[in-house]
Write a structure and sequence with these properties.
255 residues, alpha/beta, five-stranded parallel sheet
């Protein structure tokens, strides 16, 4: 995900899977006006961008920057935050259970999900678990810090595509398109490698992770994704996953 050219600021640099020392990130500020933010994101590029946004905002303080579910679970066992900004698909698990844990143990901590996943079941599970906002990565705002501040002032940010699905669900799904049976003609229009890339996208892998799994360059992966967008007539990863699911194309290669 291209998040702009923001440069990393105050937080001490952490590896994608490094467990931060409690001293590495300052304790909560004495100023009651600063909201404490815990960040969980395994993609180093995205995490560093979010770190910089948060560090640059005068109303926010980054108290944890983590890359694994296990790290986040351990951190919340002995620390508190006002906001949890989290991805869902982590190398060691799915963050939905952490979301539930945080909402139970720290009801004042509000959770904002930023994920590639956009399917109705995942979104509804997160909302039911207590998430106050759900943003798809492809539509992430340039200033995530302002979104966090808005949440603490009562907002509930939701990506437009996610909002539409929630509205359809509330209305009983009368206008929702039913999932289609696998379409052999549609499946044939994708190459085996494109189908594999599509499966990995749907599971939340970043472009860099897909490149490593396939033993190719990130540029090659981006080429496959460009072809996918063209063949599926979509413009984002979230739309690609949604449309491919509707057409019955997922689960055909890696399952």
């Amino acid at each position: 995900m291209k998040m702009g050219g923001a440069k990393r600021a105050a937080p001490t640099k952490l590896g994608a899977t490094a467990m931060p020392d409690a001293a590495a990130i300052p304790a909560a500020s004495s100023s009651a006006l600063r909201w404490r933010v815990a960040l969980l994101e395994d993609d180093a590029e995205v995490r560093h961008f979010f770190e910089a946004c948060i560090a640059a905002h005068p109303e926010l303080e980054l108290v944890a920057s983590l890359g694994l579910m296990a790290e986040a679970t351990a951190w919340f066992d002995s620390h508190q935050a006002d906001i949890l900004l989290t991805d869902l698909a982590l190398p060691d698990g799915h963050a939905l259970e952490l979301l539930r844990q945080v909402v139970r143990s720290q009801p004042a901590c509000e959770v904002l999900v930023v994920s590639v996943f956009g399917d109705e079941d995942t979104v509804l599970d997160c909302v039911r678990a207590g998430a106050v906002g759900y943003i798809q990565k492809d539509s992430s705002p340039a200033d995530i810090a302002q979104v966090i501040v808005d949440i603490k002032h009562g907002a509930s940010p939701i990506s437009p595509m996610i909002a539409r699905k929630l509205l359809l669900h509330v209305r009983g799904g009368a206008d929702a398109r039913p999932a289609a049976a696998p379409d052999p003609a549609a499946a044939m229009m994708l190459t085996p490698r494109e189908t594999e890339v599509l499966e990995l996208i749907s599971r939340g892998y970043s472009y860099g992770e897909i490149a490593r799994l396939q033993g190719v360059t990130k540029h090659t992966v981006q080429g496959h994704i460009k072809n996918l967008y063209s063949k599926l007539a979509v413009h984002s990863r979230g739309e690609a996953v949604f449309e491919a699911s509707r057409m019955g194309l997922l689960g055909r290669m890696l399952g």
